[in-house]
Fold each of these.
Amino acid sequence: MGSEINGSHGARHIRLTSHPGQGATGAPAIHWGAPTAAERGPVVGTTVNRSQRNVIGTHSGSYGVYRALAVAAGNLVKGHRADLTNTSPTDLIGPYPQWGDADKIVSIDPWGASVADVFSEHLAQGYDIRPTIAVTKAHIHLPEVRQAIAFQRLQVDGKVLLDDSSAVVTKVAIEPVWWLPGVAKRFNVTEADLRRALFEETGGMYPELVTRSDIEVFLPPIGGQTLYIFGDARDLANPNVTLTARVHDECNGSDVFGSDICTCRPYLTHAIEECIRGAQAGGVGLIAYSRKEGRALGEVTKFLVYNARKRQEGGDRADKYFLRTECVAGVQDMRFQELMPDVLHWLGIRKIHRLVSMSNDKFDAITGSGIEVGERVKIPDELVPADARVEIEAKIAAGYFTDGSVPDEVMLAAVKGRGLE
Ligand SMILES: [Zn+2]
C-alpha cells in the first residue's frame, strides 16, 4: 500500500493506495541479480511521484528522516528533484560478474553509482532515479601517518603519499539497498518472517513490508558505509595485485575522539599505514568503514555497558567482557557480518592477500562468501591502549585471530581495566 499526502483547506489526509498506477510511467520491474542494468531495472525510491516507486522506504538511509523534517519545516520544497550535473563517479568501478549474482550481493545496488549512465532512457522519460553510491577523490591527513613518515616507516612518493604527508584516496559512499528475498536467505529465515520482524521492530514504520510482498526491495533507514581506496580502484578486482584490506565498524568514541577503552582507532590507523605501504609497493589498499556503532547496538547501549563493566564486582575484567554486553543488550553483537562481504563483491574482489583484522566473524563471513584470504594482520601489541586490554584479551579468548598465546580462564580474570574515576 502506498500513501499520498493531500492538503486541502488546511486539513491533511493520508490516502493509502494499494496499487499505484502501472503503464508507461508506472513502476519499473526489478529483476535482482540480472546480468545487465537494463534487465535488472532501476531502483526508484522517489517520494515525488509515487506511481514510479518500486521499493519500500526511501533514499539517504537514516537521513531520510531529516529530509522529512526539512519538508515539514518548509526549508525544502516537496518534490525537489536532484540536479545530477557533474556528479558522476571519478573512478569506474565494475561491472563485475558478481553484480549479476543474486547470492553474492543482496544489500547494495551494484548499479547505484552509474544510474545517470545506465538508466539514461528512464531518466529521459521522467523517472526520478537517484544514485545510492557516490565515488570521489580526496587527500586525507592523519597524525598517525605523519608520525609513520617521521619514524621512516613510510616514505613520501609523490603519488600515494604527498609532500604534505597527505594520502591520495578514492572514497566511496554507499547507501543500503536490501533485496529482501536475498537478505532472508543469508540469515536462513523466511522472507515473511523477516518482513514481519522489520515491520514490528520499527514500530510499524513500513506497512508495505507486510502488505506488499510483490515489492522486494527495501531502502532501510540505517547508516551505510564508506570506502577508502589507496591505489587504483580497478586493481581491487585483480587477484594478482596484492590487496591489503580492513573492514572496520564505526566506533565514534575511539575513531574520532581517541577514547582509550578499545583498539578501534589504533587498529584503523595501523590498517591505513599498511594500505599505503601496500599501494606504494604496487598493490592496492581498502578500508571498508561501516556505520555500525557499538556493534550496531548504538552508542547509548555501548556507554551503559561501559558503566556496567566498570562498576561490577571486581571491576572491569576480561572474563566478564561479553557477559556485560549481553546483560544490557540481550546479545553480544548485532553487526551481522553476513551482509558485510557484499561491498567486497561489488568491488570485484576475489582475494584479500592481507586482511588487517583479528575478527573471526569477519574472516568467516568473507571466506564463506567465496573470497580467499591470505595473511591475517593483527594489531601490534604496542598500539593497544592499557584500558583496552580487557577487550582484546576477551576477544582473543573467544576466538579472535592471534599469533600469540590464547589466555585461559585464570589469565582472563586477571586482565583488569581502569575504574570510572
Ligand atoms: Zn571501539
Note: The chain has a mean pLDDT of 91.
Amino acid sequence: MSVSVLSPSRLLGGISGLLQVACLLGLFLLLLKAAQLYLHRRGLLRALKQFPSPPSHWLFGHNQEFQKDQELQWTMKWVQKLPSAFPHWLWGTKVRMLLYDPDYIKMVLGRSDPKSNGSYRFLAPWIGQGLLLLDGQTWFQHRRMLTPAFHYDILKPYVGLMANSVRVMLDKLEELIGQDSPVEIFQHVSLMTLDTIMKCAFSHQGSIQLDRNSQSYIQAIGDLNNLVFCRIRNAFHQNDTIYRLTPAGRWAHRACQIAHQHTDQVIKLRKAHLREEGELEKVRRRRHLDFLDILLFTKTENGSSLPDEDLRAEVDTFMFAGHDTTASSISWILYALAKNPKHQQKCREEIQSLLGDGAPITWDHLDQMPYTTMCIKEALRLYPPVPSVGRELSKPITFPDGRSLPKGTIVVLYIYALHHNPKVWPNPEVFDPSRFAPSSARHSHAFLPFSGGSRNCIGKQFAMIELKVAVALTLLRFKLLPDPTRVPTPLPTVVLKSKNGIHLHLRKLL
Ligand code: HEM
C-alpha cells in the first residue's frame, strides 16, 4: 500500500525531525555560550589573581555571603582583612574591583577613565545624558558651560534663600513635636533641600515644602535610588527589554515619569516666563542669571540653542544631584550630632556667639564657625552621602605596590570604605572632629565626600553653604537626641540612605 507524501505520519515524522535538529542546535548554542562564559570567567580570574578575594560561589558570586541590606557590613569586614582593594563578584562573570586605599584612588582620579557603563547606564532613563553621565569632549563643554552657575557671586545671595527654606522646615518640625515621639527627619530634610535647589538654581517662587506634588517627586527619587541599586546586582535585570517587562522595571518606568513631570513643568514655566521677560541682555541687567537661564541662553558651537533633550538631562541631573545628596548629608550630620551631645553643644555655643541675638545668618558668618565645620566634615567622613563612584579603566593601571589591573576592569572608588578604613583613619567608627582641626595632616585622598580630580562635584561649595546654614539654624532651635529604639542602618544606594529612616527626638530650646 503506498503512503501519500502528505500523510499524517510522514508529516509528524518531519516535524519531530525538525524539532530534534532545533533541540540539537539549541544545545549546541547553549554549550557554546557556557564555554564562552567559562573562558571569560577564567580570563577575569587570571587578570585579578594579584588581588585575593573573599570566598565566592562560581555562579552566584558574593551574593550568598551576606543577607540583602548587609552589603556594607560585609564589605567592611573584608576591608579590614584585605589591603587596598578586592574583587567583588556580582555573579559568575561580573566582577568589580573595590578600591579603598588613598594611593590607589588618587591614581584613578588622576586619569580620565570614563564612568563605568555597568552601573551608570541604569541612571540614564532617569537623569539622561547630563553632566554626571557624560564623558569626553561633550562632558568638557557642559562642565565649562555650567561652571559659572556656581561662581562665588552667584552663591552669595543663596544664603538667605537657604535660610528661608530651613526655617519653613523647622517651623513644620516644631508643630510635629508636640507629643514626645521621635520624628523621621529624612523626608522633611529632603523636601527642604528640594525647596532650596528649586529656589536657587531654578528661581522657583512659592514653597515646595507645602506642595503635595513635591512629595511624589521625593518618593519617586527614593524609589529610583533603591531600584538602581538592586538592578546593578541582578544578573537577570541587565537587559533593558527584559527589565522593562519585570515588576521592578515597570516601577522604575513609573518613577521616571513622575520625576520627569516635575522637571518638565519647571522648564515649561521658565520658558514662558522668559518669553515675557524678553532678551538675554535685558534679563541680565535685571537679575543674576541662574542655572536654568544659563542652560536656556547657551549657544552651542554652531550657534544653536541647547537641544531640548540635553536641557532636560541637565535639569534632571541637577535637580537630583542638588537635593538628594544634601538631604542625605544634613540628615546624617544631625544624627551624628544627636549621638554626640558634647560636640553638639560646642557647635551650638559657637553658633549662638554669632547669631544668638537673632541676627539673620549671612555669607560672612559661614567662615566663622570652625568647630561646626569640623563636625560637619567628620559626619561627612562617617556617612559619605555618595558612598561610591565607578570607572571603567580605558588602559591598564599599575598601582604603587606593583599590582596591576587590565584595561576594561570596572573599578569602584569605595568612598565609604576609604572613610572607614582603619589604615587611613585610626578608630574609624569614633566621631572625632579633631581629625579636621587646621593643624591635623592627612593624605590628600583620604577624605573624598565630593570625589576628586576633574570629575569632582561641581556643587560642592553650594552644598557646604547649605549644610552650614541648615546645621546652624537647626541647632539654634532644637536640642537633638537619638532614638535608641530605632538606630539607623546605612544603605549604600546611589546616595547613602538609611534602611529604616533617621529618627530623632527634637527638644525645642527656649
Ligand atoms: C553634600 C552634598 C554633595 C555630595 C556629597 C556630592 C558628591 C558628589 C560626588 C562624589 C560626585 C562624583 C560623582 C562621580 O564621579 O560619579 C559628584 C558629582 C556631581 N555633583 Fe555633587 N555632591 C553634593 C552636592 C551637589 C550639589 C548641591 C549639586 C548641584 C547643585 C551637585 C551636582 C553634581 C554634578 C552635576 C556632578 C557631576 C560632575 C561632573 O561629572 O562633572 N552635587 N558629587
Note: The CA atoms of residues 16 and 22 lie 10 Å apart.
Amino acid sequence: MKAMVLERSRTRLVPVERPDPVPGPGEIRLRIEACAVCRTDLHVVDGELEHSKRPLVPGHEIVGIVEAIGLGVDATRMGRRVGVPWLGHTCGTCPYCRFGAENLCDAPLFTGYTRDGGFATHAVADTDFAFDLDPDADPVALAPLLCAGLIGWRSLKKAGDGKRIGLYGFGAAAHIIAQVCVWQGREVYAFTRPEDLDVQHFALSLGAAWAGGSEEAPPVPLDAAIIFAPVGELVPAALRAVRKAGRVVCGGIHMSDIPSMPYAALWEERELVSVANLTRQDAATFFPVARAAGVRTHTTIYPLASANEALADLRAGRLNGAAVLVP
Ligand SMILES: [Zn+2]
Ligand SMILES: [Zn+2]
C-alpha cells in the first residue's frame, strides 16, 4: 500500500510504501476510494492535539470497498462500500458507552489520530465502526459526510429546534448543515471572515437567508448558533447574536482561547455547549437525512500524493466546501 505519513508534528507528510495491512479479529481492510480532509487533520499535523500515534496516517473521512475481513467479521461485508469516521473504536463497557454516549468513551480509538487513517490506498478499520454506504453514489461526494456531515449533524441536534440558525465558519461542515437546515425549513445566517465575500456568496447560493462578517450583528436575533471555526473570539460574538435562552454550540475539537467577556453576554439563560466526536446513532440518523435533503457536497479533488497541498489550501481558506484525496 501507499500512504502519506506524519512522522513528527509540524512537518510535511511523506509518501511511504508498506505491505498491505492485515485485518485482525473484528476488523476489515478497505481499498480506499476517497478520503476527505478535515480541519482536525490540521490540528493533528500541527500538534495541537496531544497523544497522536506516530508515525501516523491521518484522515478520518474514508470511503472504500471491503476487500479483506478478519476473524469473526460477517462475510457478507466483503465487496461492500463502507465509510469510516473519526470514532474508530469504543470500549463498550465504560459508563459513557453503557448509557448512550459512546462519543465520550473513556478508552476510544480515533481514526487518523490514535489509529492509522485514510490518507492511503488501504486502511484497516473496526467493522462495527464502518457504515454501509450507497454503492451507486459518488465516493468523492460521500467522503465529507463522514466527519463534516456527522459532526455538523450532531452540532445541529445540540443546537435544538429553533428556526434561525447561525453558522460561524462556512467550511465543509457548515456547507452541508446549511443544506440540511434549508431542507428542514429553517433560516441560515452564515458568518465568515469579513473579507471572504466569495464564501458569503457560496452560503447564499446554498440557500442561506443572510451572510456577513463574523463581527456583524445578524438582522434578527438567532435561536441558536454553531461555531465551526477554531476561533475563540467567536464565542462572545455568537452569544451576542442569539436571543434570550439561545444556545451557542462549539462544534470543533480545538479552539483558540475564549477571551474574557462580561457576564451579561451569558445572562438571560443563554447557553454555551460543546460537541465531542460522534456516536454510531448519529450516523444512523444522519445518512437518511442527507439523502432525503438531497445534500450535495462541494469538493476539490487532490491526488493522494498532493495531501500536503490539500492541507495547505484548507489552512489558507482557499477551499469552498471540502478537499478530498483520491488514491
Ligand atoms: Zn473531522
Ligand atoms: Zn467506553
Note: The chain is about 25% helix and 25% strand.
Amino acid sequence: MAKLNFGGVEENVVTREEFPLSKAQQVLKNETVAVIGYGVQGPGQALNQKDNGINVIVGQRKNSKTWDKAVRDGFVPGETLFEIEEALQKGTIICYLLSDAAQIALWPTVKKHLTKGKALYFSHGFGITFNEQTGIIPPKDIDVFLVAPKGSGTSLRRMFLQGRGLNSSYAIYQDATGKAFDRVVALGIAVGSGYLFETDFRKEVYSDLTGERGTLMGAIQGIFSAQYEVLRAKGHTPSEAFNETVEELTQSLMPLVAENGMDWMYANCSTTAQRGALDWWKRFRDATKPLFNELYESVATGKESQRSIDSNSQPDYREKLEVELKELRESELWQAGKTVRGLRPENQKATAKESNSSTKEVFRKQALKSESIG
Ligand SMILES: NC(=O)c1ccc[n+]([C@@H]2O[C@H](COP(=O)([O-])OP(=O)(O)OC[C@H]3O[C@@H](n4cnc5c(N)ncnc54)[C@H](OP(=O)(O)O)[C@@H]3O)[C@@H](O)[C@H]2O)c1
C-alpha cells in the first residue's frame, strides 16, 4: 500500500497501479457479488462491476419501477436479477445498498443469510457505527467492510464510462476470513474507484454526516440564501443577486478550483477580488466554526442519526419531505436560478420554446415577481 503525503500528513492509499483490475478480478473470481438495492449507488456499483467482468447479481423487490430499471439496464430475471432473499442466499459478498432506513427494516432477513465466510459490504458507516439505534450487529464469523464512493452513484457510473474514477474510502470492521483486505480493495477497484483511502466506519460516517450537513449541502445553501437575501434587501434584482451568489461560482470559479485549488484561484483573480477575499475569508471561518463544532457534536452523540432514522421511518415521511422541498424549489432564489440557467446559450432554445417569452420578458416577469416579495 502506498503512503502518500497529504499536506504534511502521511496516509495509506491504494491506487489502481498497485491493485490493477486484473488483480481485483483474480481476488473475486470465485465470489458471487450480490448488490442488494438498485436505487442510486446500486446501479452505479453493479453496472461497473459487471462491465469489469465480476460475477455480479442484483437483489431487488419485484413489481417496482426499480426492478424494471434493473431489467432495462441488462440484468436478467432468474439469471442475474432476483428477489432480495434469493440474491442474499446466492451471494458470497452482500453489498447492502438499500437506503439506510430500509437497511434497518430488512436486517433480520439479511442476517439469516450471513453464513460463515461470507462478507457484508456497506457504502456507509451508518448502520454499524450507530448499531445501538439500527440494531445492525453482524455475526462474528463473516467479513464486514465498506467502500464509500465520494459522490453519487450517477457520477460513479458516468465517470467510469468516461474512463475516469471517483475516489472512495474503504474500511474494515471485521476480518473473519483473513481475506478482508483483498476482498474490500478488489471491490473498491471493481466498482470504479479511482483510488481508495483508508478510514474506519466511525470516521467515515462522522465526516460524511458533517460534510453533507455542512459545506456540501446544508451550510452552502445557508450561505447562498444569506447573501442572496442581503443583496435583494438592498435593492439588487434577482438576476444580479443570483449571478453574484451562485451562477458565477458554479459556472466559472468552481471548475477552476476543482482543477487548481482555491489557492490558485486567489492568486489568479482581479486584485480587487483578491484583496476582499483575503480580508474576509477568516471572518467567515470564525463566524461559522462554532456552528461546525456544534454540528460535529450532534453527529458524534448520535443525535443526527436518530433524527434521520425517526423522520425517515414515519409513514407520512414522503409528504412531509415534499413540503420542505417545495419551499426550497419555490424560493425566489432557485426560481431565479431556473431562469438564469435557461439563459445559458446552450439552454436558450429550450427556454424560448418552453416559456414562449423573449429574454427581456423573462427578466421583466422576474422583476415583477420580486417587487411583490422584496
Ligand atoms: N446516494 C448516493 O449516491 C450515496 C453515496 C455514497 C454512499 N451511499 C450509501 O449507499 C447506500 C445506498 O444508498 P442509495 O442512496 O443508493 O439508496 P437509495 O437509492 O435510497 O435505495 C433505494 C433502494 O432501496 C430499496 N428499498 C427502500 N425501502 C425498501 C424496503 N422497505 N424494502 C426493500 N427495499 C427497499 C429501493 O427499492 P424500491 O425502489 O423498490 O423502493 C431501492 O432499491 C446507503 O448506505 C448510502 O448511505 C449513497
Note: The chain has a mean pLDDT of 93.
